[in-house]
Amino acid sequence: MTANPVKPARGLPSSNCPKFWCIDFWALVTVQRVLLGWHAFVHSPTFNEIGHLPAGICHWRYQMFHLYRVNPPLPRMVASIPVLAMKPETDWSNYQLGPHSRETIPMGIRFAKVNGPRTFALFAVARLGCIPFALLGATVCWVWAGELWGRSAARLSLALWVFNPMILGHGSLVMPDVPAAATGAMACFLLRLPNFFIQTSPRGLFGHRQRPALRRDVNPLPG
Predict the structure, then answer these.
(1) CB-side neighbour CA atoms (13 Å) of 91
(2) pLDDT under 50 in the chain at which residues?
(3) For residue 149, how far is the Cα from the chain centroid?
(4) pLDDT of residue 28
(5) Helices 177-191 and 74-84: angle between axes, nearest 10 degrees
(6) To 10 degrees, the CA torsion angle through 91, 117, 168, 178?
(7) C-alpha separations of 139 from 45, 82, 107 in Å
(8) Vertex 113, ends 95 and 179: CA angle to 5°?
(9) What does the domain layout of the chain look like in residue ranges?
């Protein structure tokens, strides 16, 4: 009798999964980087975008998160890191701490006024800090599609992400849209890995009593 071949564990990369040194991957990712970098420098800040950058600066300088509290702070905090090195001017007048305060856009307008023409350079640098989120989404598309259906599917999935008008339009903005899509896709991909939470979580994060349940039900998505 011949033994049946052992199937690879679900959620683990197969031998047909495309590698990161493929010319297809780096060519498409480079195209996206060029397009988003060009967008970051030639377009003026959008209306909602002007509030995110000063909010990110406030998060770092004062550890206060009242500004733009309706959106997650991570994207604007990442974007504001290189801007802090440029020592931008700020105007925190009329900064309100109330739960219903929505001073974000007026704060952004004052930020633009005190920095004058330099505002465009500040936003261009901040936008460059957001581009890695789009590259993260591209990487997830490449790896996930390649793991499931091979290199052709990986190439198609990556091309759909790279040339998606929504990604090209929002990928370099100091906004949470593309970062949320990219990190959400990464979270869904990681949830497919066997025992991901058991192997990577700190000992006290879930507790020993919850771990048996997680071990039985760790794959919410079909492989």
Answers:
(1) 16
(2) 1, 3, 5-15, 203-223
(3) 25
(4) 93
(5) 120
(6) -10
(7) 27, 24, 35
(8) 70
(9) 23-191
Model pLDDT for residues 86-143, shown as the tens digit of each residue = 999 998 887 776 666 677 888 899 999 999 999 999 999 999 999 999 999 999 999 9
pTM, two decimal places: 0.77
In Å, how far from its chain's centre is CA 135?
Answer: 8
* 18: its two tokens: 């495309």
DSSP for the chain, please give it.
Answer: -PPPPPPPPTTSPPTTSPPTT-HHHHHHHHHHHHHHHHHHHHSPPPTTHHHHHHHHHHHHHH----TTTTS-SHHHHHHHHHHHTT------TT---STT---HHHHHHHHHHHHTTHHHHHHHHHHHHHHHHHHHHHHHHHHHHHHHH-HHHHHHHHHHHHT-HHHHHHTTSSSSHHHHHHHHHHHHHHHTSTTHHHHHS-HHHH-TTTHHHHHHS---S--
Does residue 134 contact residue 32 with C-beta atoms inside 8 Å?
yes
